[in-house]
């Protein structure tokens, strides 16, 4: 059963998603659907420093508060208390925690006295501080896409009829200008973006990226290679071994999103960049470690492709075959 609310009584809404870049991309449909259903409400988002770039131009959000999850130092814990006191003064009507952590539920929804509290929970005690609680399913039991789980939470808890689960990445004219500047300065025409960055447990060996770049350059000499990411050492190493590739380090994520849309293909691991690519309907090849829940995280849309395998043993030849199939389409 959902909570008995009247939309006209909801004047202030808090949404919490203070974790990783990919997580906020996959939850961004919530901001759009909440705004559709509560067009006059003030919507405040609690984000993390790392994912702020994704949402700071989103017109569905009125205010962004930066707060790291979870507090690991005394200063970070004090930040939670400070934000909690700030929220209490706001008299917020509806709070939605998409992260599911106890610190968020208790300090950012319950303690500030938010009237209607909705969210996921991963610790049993958390459910007792929510008016509507949805248990975070263990990753081995996921049977639908993460974006759909966000929409279902809204529909079940608030009695909405939202259907659009596609991510909502907001950009502006300055982002477009920055993207065009990159294309002009780097003289990009036909190009493939490769993102070698990944967490160690879902990383395709970096030497395989080196081999793949060499194979692509030989087979498709007119295609430029753009290396995108934040790992200066890895990208620098690949660039040194492959003269002529373009390096794009620590670029604004919204600009990267727009650049992906201009590319012939984006190759990346599961994570923020690959979700940006398919969200922008760019041709995308997602390298997904086999231990991860495929149905939960796979890229969506007709331009999205993936290899679901043990990445440490995935051959360059198999990846190249997929690249060739995609570029022919």
Account of the 3D structure:
The protein has 329 residues and is of the alpha/beta class. The protein has two domains: 7-158, 3-Layer(aba) Sandwich (Rossmann fold); 173-328, Rossmann fold (3-Layer(aba) Sandwich). It has 13 helices and twelve strands. It has helices at residues 21-27, 29-37, 52-55, 74-90, 102-110, 146-158, 173-185, 206-219, 232-241, 253-262, 272-279, 294-297, 316-328, and strands at residues 12-17, 42-47, 63-66, 94-97, 116-121, 132-135, 191-195, 224-229, 246-249, 265-269, 284-289, 304-309. The chain has a six-stranded parallel β-sheet with strand order 3-2-1-4-5-6, with helices on both faces. A six-stranded parallel β-sheet has the order 9-8-7-10-11-12, with helices on both faces. Strand 2, helix 3 (52-55) and strand 3 (63-66) form a beta-alpha-beta unit. Helix 2 packs parallel to helix 6, helix 7 crosses helix 10 (253-262) and helix 8 (206-219) crosses helix 13. It is elongated and about 60 Å long. The termini are far apart. The mean pLDDT is 94.
């Amino acid at each position: 059963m959902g909570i008995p609310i009247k939309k006209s009584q909801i004047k202030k809404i808090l949404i919490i998603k203070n974790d990783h870049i990919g997580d906020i991309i996959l939850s961004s449909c919530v901001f759009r659907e909440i705004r559709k259903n509560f067009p006059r409400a003030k919507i405040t988002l609690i984000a993390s420093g790392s994912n702020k770039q994704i949402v700071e131009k989103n017109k569905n959000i009125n205010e962004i508060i930066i707060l790291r999850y979870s507090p690991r130092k005394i200063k970070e814990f004090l930040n939670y208390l400070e934000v909690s006191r700030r929220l209490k003064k706001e008299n917020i009507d509806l709070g939605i925690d998409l992260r599911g952590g106890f610190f968020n539920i208790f300090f950012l929804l319950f303690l500030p006295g938010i009237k209607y509290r909705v969210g996921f929970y991963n610790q049993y005690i958390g459910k007792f501080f929510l008016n509507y609680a949805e248990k975070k399913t263990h990753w081995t039991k996921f049977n639908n896409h993460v974006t759909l789980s966000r929409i279902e939470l809204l529909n079940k808890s608030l009695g909405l009829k939202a259907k659009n689960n596609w991510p909502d990445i907001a950009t502006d004219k300055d982002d477009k200008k920055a993207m065009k500047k990159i294309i002009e300065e780097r003289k990009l025409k036909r190009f493939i973006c490769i993102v070698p960055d990944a967490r160690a447990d879902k990383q395709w060996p970096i030497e395989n990226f080196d081999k793949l770049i060499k194979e692509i350059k030989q087979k498709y000499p007119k295609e430029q290679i753009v290396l995108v990411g934040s790992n200066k050492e890895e990208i620098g190493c690949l660039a040194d071994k492959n003269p002529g590739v373009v390096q794009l380090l620590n670029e604004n994520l919204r600009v990267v999103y727009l650049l992906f849309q201009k590319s012939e293909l984006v190759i990346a691991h599961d994570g923020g960049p690959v979700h940006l690519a398919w969200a922008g309907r760019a041709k995308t090849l997602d390298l997904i470690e086999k231990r991860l829940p495929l149905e939960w995280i796979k890229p969506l849309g007709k331009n999205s492709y993936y290899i679901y395998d043990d990445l440490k043993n995935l051959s360059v030849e198999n990846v190249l075959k997929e690249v060739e199939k995609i570029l022919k389409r």
